[in-house]
């Protein structure tokens, strides 16, 4: 918890400093970049380092979900120079002409990105994105509340176990939540069958009486504080919670990859088409891709880096973690989201409203 408190204090200070800087006299578009990222997803010391190195001020804001990021960009009114969406949303933004092509001559540190993360399905020509962090999704559970002999440990079914009524958390976004239900059914995350998607939504409606809360970042307080017993969880978040709890963490929290398969995702840095400072944005991307900066960021936020050079700089417990860097055999069970057809996305939105109001 100390690390999170320090993080929050540092971010609050950064916001104040950046607001003052943005209000200063003589500041031009070339002196400032607006960065839009996820919450608790950067080492806050990197921002002043970038500012000192380049003379470019950073206005930093956060979003809880990809969908909110997309909505703010689509609605306009705020111009961003860097956004960090997930793979499937990057594909959608490319299709809708929302992103600018990156000049990779101005991002020489891209050379450090591993070949396995280049030319991904969501950006096959590698024109619009540079990997920021990647990770996987599993289930975290409280060993003091969940019977270690529980037959559902190892499966998504644990999130539907009536024994843990009001002790279960679920992701607070449609793609992840419906995706989990699809996996429970033995289906792909990327099915376009209306019948399958509706059946998954019904599973979430059936689960709702068991759910204590729909969460994103709130999972930290609830699981660390023993307020809930079970939750879907990003592997990096589990690793961070276990670290914050110290020796108590391994005794209190367990984590597994569901046998039905799960999600491997990539969050990547992109430049919106309406950027006011593309050159500054490319400098920021290049700065983050420097292995020493990427390693510092990865160590702070506890996700996984797409740069082997950065991974080698991490502490042993991170570099060798099978949670953060699962074996190839386990990775074979993971699936990456793709951009769904428009009719499917509309169905997701409609069904999510129905689930939330059930």
Could you explain the architecture of this structure?
It is built from 15 helices and twelve strands. The chain is α/β, with parallel strands linked by helices and 358 residues long. The strands form four sheets. Strands 5, 8, 9, 10 and 12 form a five-stranded mixed β-sheet that branches. Helix 5 packs across helix 6 and helix 6 packs parallel to helix 15. The longest helix has 22 residues. The protein starts with a helix and ends with a helix.
Shape annotation = globular
Low-confidence stretches: 1-27
Q: What's the number of helices?
A: 15
Radius of gyration: 20 Å
Quaternary organisation of the protein chains:
single chain
The helix content, as a percent range, equals 40-55%
Number of strands: 12
- Tell me, rounded to a whole number, the average pLDDT: 90
Per DSSP, what share of the residues sits in E-state strands of 2 or more residues? Answer: 15-25%
The SS-based structural class is: alpha/beta
The first-to-last residue Cα distance is: 34 Å
Order of SSEs: HEHEHEHEEEHHEHEHHEEEHHHHHEH
The largest pleated sheet is described as: 5 strands, mixed
């Amino acid at each position: 918890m100390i690390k999170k408190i320090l993080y929050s204090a540092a971010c609050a200070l950064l916001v104040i400093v950046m607001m003052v800087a943005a209000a200063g006299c003589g500041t031009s578009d070339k002196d400032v970049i607006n960065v839009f990222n996820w919450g608790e997803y950067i080492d806050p010391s990197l921002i002043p380092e970038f500012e000192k190195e380049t003379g470019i001020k950073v206005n930093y804001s956060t979003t809880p979900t990809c969908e909110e990021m997309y909505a703010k960009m689509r609605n306009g009114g705020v111009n961003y120079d860097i956004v960090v969406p997930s793979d499937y949303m990057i594909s959608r933004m490319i299709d809708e002409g929302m992103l600018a092509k990156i000049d990779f001559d101005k991002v020489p540190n891209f050379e450090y990105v591993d070949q396995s993360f280049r030319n991904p399905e969501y950006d096959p020509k590698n024109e619009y994105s540079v990997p920021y962090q990647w990770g996987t999704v599993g289930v975290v559970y409280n060993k003091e509340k969940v019977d270690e002999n529980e037959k559902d440990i190892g499966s998504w079914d644990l999130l539907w176990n009536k024994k843990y009524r009001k002790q279960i958390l679920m992701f607070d976004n449609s793609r992840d939540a419906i995706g989990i239900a699809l996996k429970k059914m033995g289906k792909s995350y990327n099915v376009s069958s209306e019948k399958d998607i509706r059946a998954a939504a019904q599973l979430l409606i059936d689960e709702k009486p068991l759910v204590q809360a729909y969460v994103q970042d709130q999972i930290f307080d609830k699981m660390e504080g023993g307020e809930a017993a079970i939750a879907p969880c990003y592997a990096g978040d589990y690793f961070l919670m276990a670290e914050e709890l110290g020796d108590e963490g391994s005794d209190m929290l367990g984590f597994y990859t569901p046998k039905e398969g799960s999600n491997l995702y990539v969050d990547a840095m992109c430049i919106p088409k309406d950027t006011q400072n593309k050159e500054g944005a490319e400098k920021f991307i290049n700065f983050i891709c420097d292995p020493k900066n990427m390693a510092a960021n990865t160590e702070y936020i506890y996700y996984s880096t797409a740069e082997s050079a950065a991974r080698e700089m991490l502490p042993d417990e991170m570099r060798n973690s099978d949670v953060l860097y699962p074996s190839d055999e386990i990775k074979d069970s993971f699936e990456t989201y793709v951009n769904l057809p428009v009719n499917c996305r509309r169905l997701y939105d409609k069904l999510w409203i129905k689930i939330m109001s059930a």
